[in-house]
Amino acid sequence: MRNNKLQKNGSVVLGVTILLFIALALIAGYLSFSANDARLTRLTIDAERAFIIAEAGLDYGIIKLRDLLLEYQLSGLVDQPALEGMINAIAPPNGIDEYDYITPSGASAFKIQIESPLITGTITNGTSCKGSNGMYQYFTITSGCINTNTGQGAVLKQMVQAVGLFLIRFGVFYEKDLEIVPGAAMNFYGPVHANGDVYLGSDGNTLNFYDRLTSPGDIYHRKKSDNNRYGTVKIKNGAGVQKSTLEGGQYLDSDAANWMTASVERWNGNVLSSA
Question: From the first residue on, what is the mean pLDDT of each consecutive set of 10 residues in the chain (275 residues)?
């Protein structure tokens, strides 16, 4: 009886040992999964940060290229080899923390390339300048960023078009915020552009635009000094029809939540803002 009891107790102990082993194995597997999951999370965060910093490098390149081109204003006075030399002299952006604009081998991952000669004639690409006569040239900006600790990185490339237009082509070209709120009816037959925001209205009469209306800022149907709406503003759409900023009792300008899509639908790209 004693031997049988010992054997029974022994089998019980063995059973506990097996269950304990299985529990430990499950815990080890869970910890391994958690560690791997944390590693994947860190890699994902590294990749997202590298993407954001690479995108900042693109913005840096656009600003540097713009400043360089504005210096000689697409005049053609600078030949291609000289322009290439000036572009190659643009320093890459500074790195941020452990992220740097280099390749895994340590070479620069930032580059601006000339993709075409300076062309004079009708501008065929783009929206705000398409169809106008002027000068244009294409460039490619490449921005690569890597986490020097983990090796996680991102590379972005963007083609840009630099355009030079003759000012005489514009009905209005304004450097700062532009406000047009006439007392009498007023018509504009050339393109109207402002490098700041645009404020439109009329004191009881109609303000008509028969060409493009563009701004790198916002476009509002109101005075700059207050939020009151004044008069009627109409702009020609792609079919040549004057379409008002007011339809169905609702004003359509940069204050509207659907401004970006609705403005394109109403004016077919003849009205363009920063959106």
Answer: 44 56 66 62 83 94 90 74 91 92 93 92 75 87 92 92 81 90 89 92 88 91 85 91 91 92 92 88
Query: What's the number of CA atoms in the CB half-sphere (13 Å) around residue 119?
Result: 17
Query: Residue 11 forms beta bridges with which residues?
Result: none
What is the torsional sign of CA 23, 25, 29, 31? positive
Burial 237-252 (b: 16+ CB within 10 A, else e): beeeeebebbeeeeeb
β-strands 271-272, 213-214 pairing: parallel
Please report the DSSP string for 106-122 in residue order.
S-B-EEEEE-S--EEEE
pTM over 0.70: no
Q: Look up residue 222 and give its DSSP letter.
A: S
For residue 47, the one-letter residue type is A
Distance between CA atoms of residues 238 and 211, nearest Å: 10
Residue matched to tokens 């929206």: 127
| CA distances from residue 271 to 60, 109, 116, 167, 255 in whole angstroms, order as listed | 27, 37, 29, 19, 15
CA dist., res. 151 & res. 214, Å (int) = 43
**Residue 140, burial from CB neighbour count under 10 angstroms (0-12, 13-18, 19+):** middle
3-state secondary structure of 169: helix
Rounded to a whole number of angstroms, the CA Rg of the chain reads 31
Identify residue 8 by its one-letter amino acid code: K
CA dihedral for 260, 266, 269, 273, sign (positive or negative): negative
